Amino acid sequence: MAPLRLAVIIGSTRERRVGETIGRRFAEEAMRRDDLAVTVVDLAAYEFPGSYPAEPTAAIRSFVQDINRAEAFVVVTPEYNHSFPASLKQAIDYAYDEWQAKPVGFVSYGCRSTGLHAVDGLRTVFTALHAVTVRDTVAFDLLNAHSEQAECRDRLRQDCRLLLDELWWWGMTLREGRAARPYVN
Ligand SMILES: Cc1cc2nc3c(=O)[nH]c(=O)nc-3n(C[C@H](O)[C@H](O)[C@H](O)COP(=O)(O)O)c2cc1C
């Protein structure tokens, strides 16, 4: 069985973001597994236009191809004012069919919260796109990230394993489902 193609999407493009470190660390953890083929989709690497264009630009086409190629996603999101960042919504809206009947998991973070408002908002968006969001998340409060270090690291590792197990199950199941019959819409 070919490994599941997992894209880890780094959602923050803010200057001095912490999202890149979090996203790349999570991707390294996922890369330890031989049942996953992991790529990082960093939204800061695409030169997206300032407004939604009538025709897709080269950057949009390249992003949509990256989404199309993947069979499962982990969205790495901070919380901004009890929601997710605009950079993420801008990119998500560039694709449509490419998200369909694929699983999406979340790594979220915030200051004082753990980004769960952002995740709740994203679940609604991905449901509209016919994607399947998985139940468990990896979530942490940046202000407490260094407390009880070893314990915290162990818990995070367990949370990563659970998220990746769920994504793998849904990813393989939906891979087979898409191959067996076209998705309805
Ligand atoms: C505009 C803005 C709004 C924020 N709102 C929240 C919030 O509602 N809840 C929270 O826990 N943290 C909030 N934060 C703190 C961020 O989660 C924190 O700065 C985090 O590092 C942002 O992710 P990034 O560095 O990857 O962009 C906010 C930060 C910014 C810049």
From TrEMBL:
SUPFAM superfamilies the UniProt entry points to: Flavoproteins (SSF52218)
Organism, scientific name: Dactylosporangium sucinum
GO molecular function term, any single one: FMN binding
Domain NADPH-dependent FMN reductase-like: 5-141
Protein name per UniProt: FMN reductase
Pfam family, one: FMN_red
Cellular component GO terms held in the UniProt record: cytosol
